[in-house]
Amino acid sequence: MNEITIECHNLTKTFGGLRAVDDVSVTFEAGKVTALIGPNGAGKTTLFHLISGALRPDNGRIFYRGRRIDGLPPWRVAQMGIGRLFQDVRVFGKLSALDNVRVAFRKQIGENPLWSVIRRPLVNREEQTLTQEARRWLTFVGLIELENALAEDLSYGQQKLLAIARLLAAGADVFLLDEPTAGVNPEMVRSLLALIRRLAEEGKTVVVIEHNMNVVMEIADWCFFMDEGQIVAFGLPDEVLGDRTVKAAYLGI
Amino acid sequence: MNYLWHILVMINIYIILALSLNLVAGYTGLLSLCHAAFYGIGAYATTLLMMKAGWGFFPSLFIAILLTAALSLIIAVPSLRFKGDYFVLATLGFQIIIFVILYNWVSLTRGPYGIPGIPIPKVCGIEMSTVFRYFLFSGVIASICGLLLWMLKASPFGRVLKAIREDEIAAAALGKNVPLLKMAAFTIAAAFAAVPGALFAGYMRYIDPTSFTLMESVFVISILIIGGAGSFIGPIVGAAFMVILPEALRFLHIPDAIAANMRQIIYGLLLIILMRYRPQGLFGEYGFE
Asked: Which of A7, A79, A233, B7 could lock B175 by a disulfide, CB 3.0 to 4.6 Å apart?
């Protein structure tokens, strides 16, 4: 049994009359890729918002490695180790690819305005180390040649890889990936999937929202099916995808 | 020649104002309309300490900077709760509040009568009594401020501010304490804005609230728009340009009656043209949306 890192208990989130997340209880384990599937509007992204702190649950609690995290601001949750890949990527457009990764490192002395002036030599040395590290991550995702390109000039797929490099640099322990393969060409999808598997192999907790069932079959160790705010089915991917309710509600079979 | 030194003194003052506003508006993306308020607080605090407490220029300036920073924190906490346009409106509100206080707290500031007879700043006992000396004096101070602001901008601090400008949600998702960083940028910018206030007071030797109005805040923003926000050279070029422009127009022999109005028209036209064709300004990286 792998270690449970994220625990959600009885989460509910309502918008007006709509129950986006309805009494959801799930756990996610380290070293595994867990897929979160379901029709549009099922509440999958809302669940990510709740875990990452972007939204506060109306009811329920969320724990990360035993610590309660619901109600904390997003930056606090992220600092604790929960990283997020957004559906709309969200790279820092006018920063270079290299800067996008460099800004992601945590606990930078140079981000303190006082030290950036008074302890300049130390900050410069830290920068050198960070730049080397950043280049390693860019090479890891295959973007090293584009290190000086502005992030906004990269293709959608490249921006996704950049966002993943950022998460790696940030030292995330939990990766919440929202449709990582959407809009990415097939050959890059293959690199992405290999990357995602590697993350799990290195002990990270990876949760993936996906609409592409081939991707789910290929990389997921476990699967949750959500519909209308509730977890309707869960299990091994082929079990879930073989389930009759799932087939009717989602796969159109 | 005095004319030239005078222009350069004013350019030095506006360079510090523009570079400091650049930190909060160009780098962090927070369009603050109360920069002139901090300029004014710096001027008044330095003046009052020099005249009522009898302090020298530098000790007065030091305390003025601390006071301005403290006041900016009071303004930052409520303002930064607002996003985008509402933040701008909040700073607008504070700009007006500060002006009204300076204008009406007559027992402290002499209100609309202003404060005349401000002592000339002394450096090591030497009075900065000529325009040329004041040009050197303001030049050294502007260079020091410029160097410090450059160090802040060309650092991981500057970089994370830019990241916040580009996408504050993504920045928060990377664990950056966005509220604290915004406050830091805002307060540091305000503290630097106090310095040209002191320089202005020591140069003009007379200050009144009309030098620190909303229009002045807008003027500094125009410098950023024209020179370019988000870069380092943009605000410097912009400051020089905006100070020289009205002086250059003198030589066009526009009739006195309409000269001031023509200047406003030309500024306005320039801004409109730049917004349309080059929103990032002459040397900018970031165009305000």
From this structure: A79
Q: Is B157 on the interface with A (CB under 8 A)?
A: yes
Question: From B284, which residue of chain A is nearest by alpha-carbon distance?
Answer: A94
Q: Closest partner residue to B188 among A113, A126, A170, by Cβ?
A: A113
pTM for this model (two decimals): 0.92
Nearest-CA distance from A216 to chain B in Å?
25
A153 interfaces chain B, CB cutoff of 8 Å: no
Contact present, A27 and A1 (Cβ < 8 Å): no
Q: Assess if residue B243 is contained within a domain.
A: no
The domain in which residue B101 lies consists of 2-211
- B92 burial via Cβ count (<10 Å: 0-12, 13-18, 19+): middle
Task: Give the number of other Cβ atoms within 10 Å of residue B125's Cβ.
Answer: 5
Which of A90, A108, A113 is nearest residue B169 as measured by Cβ atoms? A90
| Interchain contact, A95 vs B170, CB within 8 Å | no
User: In chain A, what are the domains?
Assistant: 4-88+174-180+205-251 (3.40.50.300)
Q: Which residues of B touch A73 (CB under 8 A)?
A: 172, 179
The ipTM estimated for the assembled molecules is 0.91
Is residue A196 a contact partner of residue A22, using CB atoms and an 8 Å limit? no
Give the DSSP letter of residue B166.
H
Secondary structure letter of residue B286 according to DSSP: B
Let me know if residue B280 belongs to a domain: no
Q: Is residue B231 part of a domain?
A: no
Domains in chain B, number: 1
A95–chain B nearest CA distance, Å: 7
